[in-house]
Specification:
The chain is α/β, with parallel strands linked by helices. About 40% of the residues lie in helices and about 15% in strands. About 45% of the residues are buried.
Length: about 200
């Protein structure tokens, strides 16, 4: 099955400028078509509310760094980083649910493909305070990552400090999917913020 999504919202309720549930709904209305529940610690009520909103809008929900929550919570899939649960173990637990993997170089992309990932996040493409990265990847690194992912037929979401000013440059390098957080969550108008990004995808 073709992996869905072009504009992937990494959703942390506490990072929202306005009411988080309004923010989520507005972001989806603006063009977000994939959502990641990205909250540390146990918040089953929040997770279920997020899932309800996503289902109402027919938007898949991925759980970050908690594969068992993805399974028990009947989410569309799970996502792991390089220091989280090993990809083969996550793949086994998720069975036929989506599995995403955070990557930072070509080898990690190839490994993710061989170990059963359905998509990857690649970055940081630009500096971002969300993860504390002061520097982004070079254009050559981004272009090489896009090529490696394409070679393995693995959808790649560019991540890290993405906004309407730098997204066109990523598109010129071959990136056609993006994962975003602060640009949308901290916006006064999340719908407009998402729409401004979606226009390039």
């Amino acid at each position: 099955m073709r992996f869905p999504g072009r504009l992937y919202l990494l959703f942390t309720p506490e990072s929202c400028r306005r009411d988080p549930w309004q923010t989520l709904g507005l972001a989806i209305a603006g063009g977000v078509d994939l959502v990641q529940w990205r909250k540390k610690g146990d918040d089953r009520v929040g997770f279920e509310r997020c899932r309800t909103i996503c289902r109402a809008h027919h938007v898949p929900l991925i759980v970050n760094d908690d594969v068992m929550l993805a399974v028990r919570g009947r989410a569309a899939g799970g996502h792991v980083g390089q220091t989280d649960m090993p990809v083969p173990a996550a793949r086994k637990l998720l069975v036929d649910r989506w599995l995403g993997v955070s990557t930072h170089d070509g080898k990690q992309i190839a490994d993710a493909a061989h170990e059963g990932a359905d998509y990857i996040g690649f970055g940081p493409c630009h500096p971002t305070a969300t993860k504390g990265y002061e520097h982004g990847k070079s254009p050559a690194d981004i272009e090489a990552a896009v090529a490696t992912a394409a070679q393995h037929r693995l959808p790649l979401f560019a991540i890290g400090g993405i906004n309407p000013d730098n997204l066109p440059g990523l598109r010129r390098l071959g990136g056609d999917r993006s994962a975003v957080s602060s640009h949308v969550l901290s916006a006064e108008d999340p719908r407009a913020a998402a729409a401004a990004l979606r226009a390039f995808l």
